[in-house]
Amino acid sequence: MSDEKSPAAGGGVPGEKPTARGEERDERRDLERVTDFVEETEIDAPQVSSAITMIAEEEKRSQAAKVAREKELRMVKIDPAHVELIAQQMDIDQEKAERILREHGGDPVKALRTLIHVSQ
Fold first, then answer.
1. Number of alpha helices (DSSP H) and beta strands (DSSP E) in the chain
2. Which pLDDT score is estimated for 118?
């Protein structure tokens, strides 16, 4: 009988009470951890709603600023010869050359300097 394990040692009988109680205790402890985690990560609906509203308002302001900037750029008078010059010299398409020229108030020298510094 020296090969048998004693019940106190957590032995060899399946479904033994000490082991079952230990497993139950471990399961309860694990369950507590899970519920604690869920409680910690609960989201407050009014806070979420407020955050979404703030994000939407910021997006509206950003879009309004973009529209205003585009309108401002369209108002800048540019010379088509300057657009052609920048497009040829910097090997870029005419739309990009026009955009950069407008961003620099129609000044081809400033536009070319910016393009040269960006490409380096």
1. 5, 0
2. 77
